[in-house]
């Protein structure tokens, strides 16, 4: 069993004919527990904060929100060495934003899904 800080984010550039172009940033930062159910297979869950930001290419921020977040993950370590492991993992994260920084209704829920290759040092 391991207690970990787990931080992951996605930055997406967009361009459309209505709103112009800009960036969407979505990050999830949690304190997580990782449990190895066998020598090479593990499960992880964490609770923490989510951060969502919308901005244009000129640096103007239209929305900047922080809310409660959780994440779930599972992985298999395909290479194990003395203090290193290479794993394949799948993860899901959810963040809830109750109200917008401009007093609006907020972004609601955001979801992140990922399939990752992990380089881990212990």
For this entry, give a set of tags.
mainly beta; 6 strands; single chain; elongated; 122 residues
Describe this structure in words.
The protein is an all-beta fold. It contains no helices and six strands. A six-stranded antiparallel sheet has the order 1-2-3-4-5-6, with no helix packed on it. The model has no long low-confidence stretch (mean pLDDT 89).
Question: Layout of helices and strands, plus pairs?
Answer:
Blueprint: E1 2-16, E2 20-36, E3 41-56, E4 61-80, E5 84-97, E6 108-121
Q: If you average the pLDDT, what whole number results?
A: 89
Please state how the strands of the largest beta sheet are arranged side by side.
Answer: 1-2-3-4-5-6
SS-based class: mainly beta
Based on DSSP secondary structure assignment, what is the total number of beta strands? Answer: 6
CA(first)-CA(last) distance: 12 Å
The run of helices and strands is: EEEEEE
Helical proportion?
under 10%
Oligomer: single chain
Alpha plus pi helix count: 0
- Estimate the strand proportion: over 45%
- Based on CA atoms alone, the radius of gyration comes out at 17 Å
Spatial shape: elongated
**Unreliable parts:** none
Largest sheet: 6 strands, antiparallel
Could you provide a short overview of the structure?
With 122 residues, the protein is mostly beta strands. The chain has no helices and six strands. The chain has strands spanning 2-16, 20-36, 41-56, 61-80, 84-97, 108-121.
